[in-house]
Task: inverse folding
């Protein structure tokens, strides 16, 4: 009887396992890798069909996604330290390391200044027009629409009545996020109406300025707002009204040359840039080196242009104290 012999070893045509893949599998087990990673390591060590070489570990290992969301940390421009964004926002948008005051929107400024739930917006129906048919890279109406969609605001100012530590006030906050807080016809009209309402109702007026100046797309119409707001403030002063001006970073151009510097009391945030023309333009014009801290709030305080430099955390207290001193 013939007995068929059975080979004891593997067929000569079979492909031997890749030694590198086996070593990777052993290392994964030794290092306590997760079960899924162990399976991937074993899969890499297994021979492939038709004599192809086994896949390497880098080809099998999945790419791990970052568990840290973008924007969680940011670098402070004052001290150049990495700070936790939520900690900075909880600190009134002030750097907890060096005290640098970040720029904020008008909505955030109103939230910080007024008592919770007391703010009632005014003049929300005002909207800009384009009588000059101005066009730069795109038409002025298209630029306004794009800014409105991006910021959720209708213009570069937010005005309304409210309370600051229980004291009734009329507040105007310029919005730097909307076309750099530039002053056009709507901004000038909203501020003028606010001044007139404060005069009529005998309310303390608080205007928070942060602007790049007059809006170039409205040309002479924006420059007229300087005279209009200044005239309204003169009538407010004749009626015995109180006007507190708060200067923040930056306050420049036609805003500085009009209502921003006409306050009965002028506060400024630390290190705020305040001036008409920028320091670089001035330096190029006079061809001289400018003093250290030129056009910053501390420099203006020494020159008598600002009454007090007040950190953001203390602003509510200082405004309430001035209102009490005025007998309002």
Result:
């Amino acid at each position: 009887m013939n007995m068929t012999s059975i080979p004891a070893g593997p067929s000569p045509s079979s492909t031997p396992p890749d030694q590198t893949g086996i070593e990777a599998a052993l290392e994964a087990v030794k290092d306590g890798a997760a079960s899924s990673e162990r399976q991937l390591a074993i899969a890499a060590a297994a021979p492939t069909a038709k004599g192809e070489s086994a896949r390497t570990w880098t080809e099998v290992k999945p790419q791990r996604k970052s568990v840290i969301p973008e924007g969680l940390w940011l670098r402070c421009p004052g001290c150049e330290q990495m700070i936790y964004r939520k900690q900075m926002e909880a600190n009134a948008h002030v750097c907890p390391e060096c005290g640098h005051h970040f720029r904020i929107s008008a909505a955030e400024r109103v939230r910080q200044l007024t008592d919770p739930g007391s703010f009632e917006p005014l003049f929300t129906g005002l909207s800009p027009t384009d009588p000059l048919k101005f066009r730069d890279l795109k038409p002025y109406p298209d630029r306004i629409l794009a800014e409105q969609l991006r910021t959720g605001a209708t213009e570069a100012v937010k005005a309304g009545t409210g309370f600051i530590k229980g004291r009734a006030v009329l507040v105007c906050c310029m919005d730097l996020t909307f076309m750099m807080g530039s002053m056009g016809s709507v901004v000038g009209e909203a501020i003028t109406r606010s001044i007139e309402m404060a005069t009529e109702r005998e309310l303390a007026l608080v205007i928070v300025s942060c602007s790049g100046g007059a809006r170039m797309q409205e040309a002479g119409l924006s420059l007229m707002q300087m005279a209009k707001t200044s005239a309204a403030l003169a009538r407010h002063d004749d009626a015995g009204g109180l006007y507190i001006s708060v200067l923040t970073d930056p306050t420049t151009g036609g805003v500085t040359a009009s209502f921003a510097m006409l306050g009965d009391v002028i506060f400024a945030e630390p290190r705020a840039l305040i001036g008409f023309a920028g320091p670089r333009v001035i330096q190029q014009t006079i061809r001289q080196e400018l003093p250290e801290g030129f056009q910053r709030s501390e420099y203006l305080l020494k020159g008598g242009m600002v009454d007090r430099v007040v950190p953001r955390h203390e602003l509510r207290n200082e405004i309430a104290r001035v209102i009490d001193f005025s007998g309002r």
Summary: Residues 1-17 have pLDDT under 50 and may be disordered.
